[in-house]
Amino acid sequence: MKQEELQGLFRQHYGIQPLKINELPRSPSHRRYFRMVGQDSGCIGAISPDPLITRAFLEFTRHFRNKGLHVPELYAVQEEKGIYLLEDLGDLMLKHLVDQSREEGSFPGKVRPLYHSVLEHLLRFQVEGHVGLDYSVCVPRMEFDRQSVLWDLNHFKYFFLQLLGIPFDEQKLEDDFQFFASFLMNASRDYFLYRDFQARNILFRDESFYFIDYQGGRMGALQYDVASLLFEARIDLPSDFREELLQYYLDTLGKVNKNDAAAFQKYYYGFVLVRILQAMGAYGLRGIIENIPLFLQSIPFAIKNIGWLLEKSLVPQGMPELTKCMQQLTELPDWKPAVAEDKLTLKITSFSYKLGIPRDYSGHGGGYIFDCRTLPNPGRIEAYRKSTGRDRDVIDFLAAKQEVSDFLGTVFALVDQSVREYSNRGYTQLMINFGCTGGQHRSVYCAEQLKAHLVKTHPVNVILNHRELDK
């Protein structure tokens, strides 16, 4: 029904029926977008079921257009129905330009001036866009205030820490959250905060950048959006390039207001941290629970950024429980990023069937689950019960069994075939699991043997995780 109404709005605006309508890939939101093409015209049609979000987007768009900021033009609107037609800005995102630069071997050289331009545009949104903006339309709050910070931190707690089984003291963590929120509230917040300023929301057309998905914006601190852009997980900017871009932003800000530039860095890495934690809450909900690959693939990079902040001592002091939780996250074997993005990484895991089959957190899917329960079980022999598949007595026991040798021969042949094909196709992830009753003897031995085989025979990265033993 809504799609028919959208076609009617197109017909009303252009005087003709659309010749072609293609729905664009869906985002995690409930909004739907369609590329609509007529005889000599085209646009993006939007269906937005949330009236508050619709109002915020429309008001922000009109305001930013009046300020000369690069946002899509509104062609036609039926706000009461939650439908509108927008300028079609194409599909070329900043992310695509970064990926292309890396593939060509010119990164970050070719994208350096692009990021400079984006940061200049961001500052215009923050300063010029703030003036005269009606913040009463903001959803869910007019300002990124203390309550907003606490919502994000609790989202991280419930949709990331708890999902991954990270232990914490509830009261001590809450105390740290309160302390962190108070610290961030000391920063000046008289600016427009875009909220989701990332490379997927920045489009490149006609040698200029355009910006979308700002409907979650509100009043807030300068630091938040800079952190969103420079610490975007899957873009994975090198730390030295991030620092160079930060300095460029500060130099540009200094030309607008020297006092703002001087005060910026005191709170910057606090906002970097809260942005990463907010994103990790989204990755947990959309990735771990809803199993959306894009969000799953972002988790290792977010944890890598957490590790960098800890290593550089950039986490605000006075949050011992939160710091302890973050340190534990960096030690989780499930979330180690690939050693080299241009090489195939095989993640080998031993596990107990009693505790469930391991999930594929890479977001790529595919791989093997080998059931070792048909093999002779050392766990039934008293002398081996306290040993594992890494101990010499169990290794000798299993190595002497012909059925184990036959089983591994079949495994090696299957995995070798996949490794060759995955490498030829440029794939970067392959998951291989070995399960047995307790995840202690047979599965551990087989996983160890496969790793040794792969290291000798293929130029690949291998990550080995004995899930039950590592607990």
Structure description:
The protein has 471 residues and is an alpha/beta fold. The chain has 3 domains: 85 residues, Phosphorylase Kinase, domain 1; 242 residues, Aminoglycoside 3'-phosphotransferase, Chain: A, domain 2 (Alpha-Beta Complex), CATH 3.90.1200.10; 126 residues, no CATH class. Helix content is 48%, strand content 14%. The protein has 15 helices and 13 strands. The strands form 4 sheets. The protein has a 5-stranded antiparallel sheet with strand order 1-2-3-5-4, with helices on both faces. Strands 11-12-10-13 form a 4-stranded parallel sheet. Helix 7 crosses helix 9. The protein is globular. The N and C termini lie far apart (52 Å).
Would you report the number of β strands?
A: 13
- The CATH superfamily label of the largest domain reads Aminoglycoside phosphotransferase (APH), C-terminal lobe
Class from helix and strand fractions? alpha/beta
Q: What CATH architecture of the largest domain do you see?
A: Alpha-Beta Complex
What does this entry show, briefly?
By secondary structure, the chain is α/β, with parallel strands linked by helices.
